[in-house]
Amino acid sequence: MANQRNTNNLAALRESLQGIDTFYVVNYQGLTAGRLGQLRRDLAAKGGRLIVAKNTLINIALRDSERDFADILHGPSAIVLAQGDPAGVARVLSDAGKANDKGIPASKGGLVEGRRVDTAVIERLASLGSKDQLYGELVGVLGAHLSTLVGLLEALQEQKGGAAA
């Protein structure tokens, strides 16, 4: 018979993973309680959530949703759910790892918008801006091009000899 605590933890983990298409598996061993608490707060500010559970329970919950991560679930593992801003959550993890000499938390792999990724992709994602920053840059680029187009159309209109009244 299964341990009731494990059964409850598995049910909570399954519920947490429902509808999640971006998460990271990290090694958290070596973080003090204070740093772990700060990491949780920083992740929450970016729409992330850190869940520490036994590898077996994480593996079962992921397999139930047709995701297999058994190859990276060794040693102390936590799963970091990213709901709103995958790049922002990855940046928080990266910054936290750089803030200590152990490099912890260290990414093991993950799932980004439904695709399995390795640590290199997570690091590249962490180097991007947030979604809002990227949207802002896109709007700026589009605005500059539209401004150029308007300038060209005005110059063409003047060249053809008439200004529309």
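^ that was protein a. below is b, sequence first then the tokens
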Amino acid sequence: MIAIIERFKGYLIAIGAAIVTLIAVYVRGRSTGRAIERQERETQINKQADEARQIVQEVRNETASMDDAAVAADLERWVRKPAGQGRR
């Protein structure tokens, strides 16, 4: 029995090394994938924040050029009326 193990010892070591290498590659790939996903998510969040800031600036510019009555009239379209008032 020991003779058989000695005979295949080199093959067993090579198989063990291959398994360890595959596990290391798998773990590294997963961690790299997570880092890439995290970076993409941060990029998307920053893009959405930039778009929101631009919209806010556009609204500020638009309302700054309007008089109070025009702003109030424009807001009436967006504000929900209490129950029993407005359209049904």
